[in-house]
Amino acid sequence: MRNKLILLLLSLLFGLGHYYLAGASNWEKTLDLSLNATQSSYSNSWSGGEAGNLSWTINANGIFKRQLTPIFNLKNTAKLAFGQTSTQDKDTKKWSKPLKTTDQIDLESVGLFTLESFIDPFVALRFQSQFLDASGGSHNRYINPMLLTQSAGIAKQPLKGEKNNILLRLGLAIRENIDRVLQLPDSATTKTVTATDGGLEYDADINLVLSDKLAYIGKLTLYKAFFFSKKNDFKGTPQADYWKAIDVNWETSLMASISKYVQVVFYTQLLYDKQIGLRGRLKETLSLGLTYKMF
User: pTM to 2 decimals?
Assistant: First the structure.
């Protein structure tokens, strides 16, 4: 029931944005679709230990924002990505089962009360998940786990323009992590486990158009929890206070347009969550592929 309520809330939120989008022409909107793929293969006559591979990634990035009233601005952001890689055995030349290499669902809606003051109040809702949870072996779970963040506080726009924008936010937040955990390794039966925490969140969104062919998008999120619903589960263990550490999610994208439909993207993501690992997790991708701007 909880999952259904969350999905219903998200549908209503982004449905409202779509309603205004369909009925008005003064929305500021961008939607980019891209496909990146690389492929190589070798016949059985090759004997030098060569192995082919096939990698592909589909991305969809959109921003829809509008000044709904003189004092309220709504901005919806969507980042979706999925990709897989298959490799060829160097001896048999047979192809392996595709493995997931990229998987992201990140939907956020920010309502900013534009009071023309030094700082403005805001409310925000963010949904993060993945399309395919393949951690259960042969039993895949879809849209799992789910992280829902609700926040409210103060915001500042040091840079505001048609193409270049910087939005800084600081506020109180409540996060709900919902995970459908497999009961047994060889069973598809799941149990929904929910963990809730609350604390202080800092968020920085940066969108810069550096030239007619070069653009930069960055997002930094810092989160410090003040309470954690599952803290008693770790009492008396070395991990008892790990939930108090600051969580970091820093994403950057540098995009260079080679032509109207060809784009090079250098993407990095730095994640740190002490409850998951004592070290940070860094991801880097450099891709060249086809890009289509819907609008």
Answer: 0.88
